[in-house]
């Protein structure tokens, strides 16, 4: 006999938080001289990136954040990109700057991110913000990991005392989420694509966060009964009928009969990433204009 997991509805939580952000922005607008502003820099014509950027701009509009995005041609030089970032650092209307990743191969993404003023780094990827996270100091937090923490909070899941296992060690997700779960008093284990006998490790997890970018790597037999499964993967795969679809790093159909809670893909972590970007932008706006 199997019981189906509670499905963590990231889309609903994202809409709820975006609604709260909209009211907050409306209220702040009465004492502020301008709306919050976000600049998304995109280089080249990667269709997936273009879709994400459109999605971010649409969400900004809904919440009342002004978009100052710039779209550069594929052959843009590092100097042009660095100059654009420098200009946005100086632009008082802009509270947040994000460089859409991945960049074309000839460009240095690390140099670009390091060039963003840490107080406008709404992606939380600047070394100063990652350092603040490591030291437990306030600062802008990476959107996807912060989105995961917000989902846990919304579902009344307290990491304290729980065994949390993260599969994946990226600077975008794996490493920052490990630090956030540690700060929330979980016992944290880091595993990754090269960990031998991954199942033996993941089966101990009360909270299992998977962010390795391998479609459906985690199967039901690797999940502890009743575990909270957070699937950060977004993989575009082609099914046997030749149709393209999105799938996570977890085999959802089997894992949902073992887990206690599970995030679907799409509709789980993805919408929260965008929401936390908006929240970080509003937070930066409040701090920059002294609106507290
Ligand atoms: N500097 C930077 N910061 C990022 O945060 C960043 C980035 N670059 N580059 C690309 C990745 C990817 N990413 C997603 C955001 C939202 C969804 C999202 O909303 N997904 C929906 C559906 C999307 C669909 O249908 O294609 C969902 O999962 O339900 C997904 C992926 C942010 N990224
Ligand atoms: Mg790996």
UniProtKB/TrEMBL annotation:
GO CC entries: cytosol
Binding site residues for NADP(+): 168-170, 234
Stretches assigned to the Tetrahydrofolate dehydrogenase/cyclohydrolase NAD(P)-binding domain: 142-286
Pathway info: One-carbon metabolism; tetrahydrofolate interconversion
EC number, UniProt record: 1.5.1.5, 3.5.4.9
HAMAP family per the UniProt record, alphabetical: THF_DHG_CYH (MF_01576)
Protein name in UniProt: Bifunctional protein FolD
Species per Swiss-Prot/TrEMBL record: Oscillatoria acuminata PCC 6304
Organism taxonomic ancestry: Bacteria, Bacillati, Cyanobacteriota, Cyanophyceae, Oscillatoriophycideae
